[in-house]
Amino acid sequence: MGIGDEVRRNVELKKPLTALISRGCLPVGGVFRLDYDSAVVLTDDFKKREAGGVPRGGFLLAVAGENTDSGFILEDQEIILLRVRGTAPLPNESELIQTRLAVVRDAGASGVGFDDVTDVLTRNELQQSAFDCEVLGTFYTETDDRDARIEYGADIDNVVVSARYQVFLPSTEVLSWLGSYPEPAEARDSLPIGKVRFAATRRKALIAGTDQAEVRIDVSDFVGRKTAVFGMTRTGKSNTIKTLVTAVHRYGSEHDRAIGQLIFDPQGEYANVNRQDGTGLRLLGDDDSGVRIYKVEPSRSDNREKSLRINFYDREVLEAAWSLVSEATASVNTNYGKNFRSAVLAEPDTDDYSQQSRWGWALVAFYGLLSKCGFPGDSFPQDLKVTAPAAPMNDFMTANPNAVFQVGKAGNYRVKSPSGACALAEWVGEHPDDFPKWHETEKCHFSAVYGVYKFTGVTAAIRSIRGFHGAQSAGDVSEHLWQDMLAGRLAIVDLSSGNDQVAKVMSERIVSHLLNRAGERFRADDEPVNMQIIVEEAHNLFERGGREVADDPWVRLSKEAAKYRMGLIYATQEVTSVDKRILSNTSNWLIAHLNSGHETRELADYYDFKVWTPSIIRAEDVGFVRMKTYSGKYIVPVQIAKFDHSMVNSARKAAGLAAVDAQAESE
C-alpha cells in the first residue's frame, strides 16, 4: 500500500460513521435480502459466538464498504439500523433440515458426538442461519466532512439488491450511543436512566460487557409533556417516577426555571423516606419553600407537611365539600340517596333575594347534616343568615336558646353554629306546615338534603370522610397547590388516608382548578406556569370514555396541557383504563411487564410496541422496560437504574442545598 492510499484510509477512518463502526463493532454476517421494511441477514454460529450472542430485539448495523488492516471503511457515510425480529429460513432450509436430521439420527444410533458423524464442510454448512430483521432507519451525514453531524431518518431511501451490506453487532460503546441517540444539546440535560437490556436472560450480555451500555435521556423530553409508565405491581413503576421527578427538579434548578411538580400519592410512598430506597423525594427540600407534603395528619414538627383537610363549613370550599359528600354517598342507590345528590348548592345571583333565601335554607340542612354526622365545628367562618316566619322561629328559639338569634327586624336570623343548624333543620323538618316555603321542592333543596337525616346508609357514608374535615383549616387546598406550582415547589398529596372514591374526587377537583387557573393566565396573555402532574395508580382516577372532555379533567389536561406547559406522568397496570385521547397525546412511553394480552393488544396500536409484546408478557424482571421518548427515534429496551440517595443529593446540589444523610433524616 502506497503512502497516498494510507493517507486516504486514515482520512476515511476518521469520518463520523466509519469511526463509529470501528469502535469495536464485530461482524456477524451480511444482508442477502433487503427491502424498504425488512432485511434478512446471513450469519453462522461461529460469528454469533464470537460477537457475544445476538438477542431478539437486538440492534444490528448494516454497512457497505471494505475491510482493511486499519478497520472497516464505508463506501458511503450511511448506516442502516436493523432490529432482530426472529429467525428466517434460508433458501436451502429444507436441505439443511434433512441433513441436521440425519446427523442427529446417526449420532444417536452410534452413540458418538455430532461432530464425529460429519465432515468439516458439512459442519460449516449446518451452522449457517439467518435473522429476520426490521429496518428501523438510516444514520447518515449530509457531507463527508470529518466533523459532519450524524442525522437519522426513519426509513431507507434506496434498496440495493447486490450482496454489498456487511452486518455488525454494536460494541458496548456504540450500543450506548444508539440507546442514547440523539444526545441533548447540553450535557447537563442528560440523565443516565439505565442500561440497554434486550433479554431477560443476560448471560451473553454479561460475558460480552454489553450489559454496561448506558442509556441517557434528555430530561427536557419529560418537561411539559405526557409520559406513560405501564407495568404490573412491583415492576418498578414508582422507581422510574422517582427518578424522573428528581431529574426534573434538578433540571429546573440548573436552568433557573421554576417547575412545579404535583404528585398524587395513593399509598403514601412518595411522601416519606422508606427503607427500600434509602431516601425519599421529601429530601429534595429542607423546608416548605421547596417541598410541601399535604397529609390528613401532618406533623407539627416538620413545616414541609401541610394539612390536606378542608373546613367543610367554609363557604369558600362549598363546591369541594359538596362534591366529596356526594361522591361518598354514591353507593347508596336508593331514591332518597339519588334525590339527595340531585340537590344544587351552588350560590345563586347575589341580586336575587328570593333565591339567596332558598339557598340559605339548603345550607342549613347541609351544614346541619355534617354536624349530625360528627363533623366538629364551634362556629361558621362566614355568617349563616336565613329568613323565616317569626312566630314558629320564636317557638324554636324558646326550645333551643343557643341555636340562632335574631338580626335586625323580625324574620331575619343568624345561625350560630353547625349544631344550631342541625337543630334548626330537624325542627323545620318536623314542622313542615310552619315552614311551607322551606319544603318547596321545585326551587328549594332543603327537603332533598333533610330527607336523608334519618337514613343510616347515607349518614354512615358521610361519616367515612370525616378525616378530610379540619375545623381550623383555612382556604382551598386546590388554591394552595396552585400557589405551590407558581413557586416551582414539589408538592405531594398523600391520599392514603381516604377511600378510592374520595381520592378520585379530590384529585379531579385539584386538576380542574389548576387547569382553570392556567387558562386564566393564558387568556390574560401572562407567561404560562411550568408544572408537572404525576399520577400513581392512574386506573383508579382515569375513566375511559365515561364523560365529555369538559367534564373529564384528565382528558382536558391531555388536550389543553401543551399550551399551558403542563406535563403529565401517569402510571398504571391497565393500559385499557386510560382514555384513548390521553394515549394519543402521550410523548414518552416506558413499558414494563404486563401479564395480559388484552392490555398488550391495546399497547400494540402505538409506535412499534407490537414487536415487543412477547417480551413484555414473558419477562417479569423488575425495572426492565421498553422505552420510547419524545426525541428518541426508536424504542430502546432498558434496565432502569435504581433510584438512590445520590440522585437526591445531586438535585440538592443543583438547588444550592447541602448534601444530607438519608439515614439521619429517616430517624
Please name the defining characteristics of this protein.
6-stranded antiparallel barrel; alpha/beta; 667 residues; 20% strand; 23 helices; 12-stranded mixed beta sheet
What does the model show?
By secondary structure, this protein is α/β, with parallel strands linked by helices. Helices cover 35% and strands 20% of the residues. The chain contains 23 helices and 23 strands. It has a twelve-stranded mixed beta sheet with strand order 10-9-23-22-21-11-20-19-12-18-13-14, with helices on both faces. The protein has a six-stranded antiparallel β-barrel with strand order 1-2-6-5-3-8. A three-stranded antiparallel beta sheet has the order 15-17-16. Strand 1 (26-34) and strand 2 (38-44) form a beta hairpin. The model has no long low-confidence stretch (mean pLDDT 88).
Give the helix/strand layout:
Layout: H1 3-13, H2 16-21, E1 26-34, E2 38-44, H3 45-51, E3 59-68, E4 71-74, E5 78-87, H4 93-110, H5 120-126, E6 128-141, E7 150-153, E8 165-169, H6 172-180, E9 190-196, H7 203-208, E10 214-218, E11 226-230, H8 237-254, E12 260-265, E13 291-295, E14 305-307, H9 318-328, H10 335-341, H11 353-372, E15 384-387, H12 390-399, E16 404-406, E17 412-415, H13 418-430, H14 446-450, H15 456-463, H16 477-487, E18 490-494, H17 500-523, E19 531-535, H18 553-564, E20 566-572, H19 580-583, E21 588-591, H20 597-603, H21 613-618, E22 624-628, E23 636-640, H22 645-654, H23 662-666
Parallel strand pairs: 11-20, 11-21, 12-18, 12-19, 13-14, 13-18, 19-20
Antiparallel strand pairs: 1-2, 1-8, 2-6, 3-4, 3-5, 3-8, 5-6, 6-7, 9-10, 9-23, 15-17, 16-17, 21-22, 22-23
Helix pairs in contact: 8-22, 9-17, 11-13, 16-17, 17-18
